[in-house]
Design a protein that fits this description.
By secondary structure, the protein is of the alpha/beta class. The chain has helices spanning 29-32, 60-74, 85-96, 118-127, 134-143, 151-160, 163-175, 199-211, 227-230, 232-243; strands spanning 4-7, 14-18, 40-44, 78-83, 101-107, 188-194, 216-220. It has a seven-stranded mixed sheet, sandwiched between helices.
Length: 244
């Protein structure tokens, strides 16, 4: 089961918001507050996260299958917006189910797989308990620009992550590469990356854009790995521009 919050009138063009790893659907609240009031918005808590923490995250593909069922029930193609882990899911969903995705906004997606993931995963496994440490979680929240109003949500989400979900979602993230069908996605695609992000993230954004030449790549000045929470009003306006 995957928890889903829905807002707005059924039948309107849907907007699906996919959060990053280690957070949950609440991360979109600051941005969602600036969207048009009639927007049809779908906000899941991905498997293993938030109100879907009773089950573990198993794979990107299984999660995309669950998301496809949500969009099939909507009955019309959606704009899919994803951040970090959710951005990888947005790319995969657009590639394998273009019939369900009219446009996509990809924010801070790593799309160049790491060659040596073993040492990184071993270290993560040894330190997985830190996710439940409040002091460590507060430092992570600062990196993501989590506002004080959602700090309790972040701490709760972080403490509820299972070791299995943490390791699986990170491994999927580190190994991710866009499928070949991404290059034939017919809809519009907006790729966003913060100017202050790591070089790997900026190279990933450039590679994703190169694989789909009709996409739009924008590097956002003054932002790191946290655009949705750092610039929520700007992002809401940019998403609505992209959907127009």
């Amino acid at each position: 089961m995957m928890h889903l919050d829905t807002f707005g009138r059924a039948g309107e063009p849907p907007l699906l918001l996919l959060h990053g790893g280690g957070v949950a659907g609440w991360m979109w609240e600051p941005m969602r507050a600036h969207l048009s009031s009639h927007a049809r918005v779908l906000v899941p808590d991905l498997p293993g996260h938030g109100r879907s923490a009773s089950g573990n995250y198993t794979s990107h593909q299984e999660t995309v299958d669950l998301l496809a069922h949500i969009l099939e029930d909507e009955g019309r193609p959606a704009t899919v917006v994803g951040f970090s882990l959710g951005a990888q899911l947005a790319v995969l969903l657009a590639a394998v189910r273009p019939d369900l995705v009219e446009s996509t906004v990809v924010i801070s997606a790593q799309t160049l797989p790491l060659r040596l993931t073993g040492p990184a995963l071993a270290l993560l496994g040894a330190t997985a308990g830190l996710a439940k440490n409040e002091k460590f979680a507060r430092l992570q929240a600062r990196e993501l620009f989590v506002p004080e109003s959602h700090l309790a949500d972040y701490l709760q989400t972080s403490s509820s992550l299972s070791r299995e979900t943490l390791l699986t979602s990170v491994e999927e993230n580190l190994r991710f590469a866009p499928p070949a069908d991404w290059s034939t996605f017919p809809g519009s695609a907006l790729i966003l990356v913060g100017a202050a992000e790591k070089k790997l993230m900026k190279r990933s954004a450039a590679a994703l854009h190169a694989a789909l030449p009709h996409s739009t790549l924008e590097v956002i000045d003054g932002c790191g790995h946290g655009i949705p929470l750092q610039r929520p009003e700007w992002l809401a306006n940019r998403i609505e521009e992209a959907r127009a």
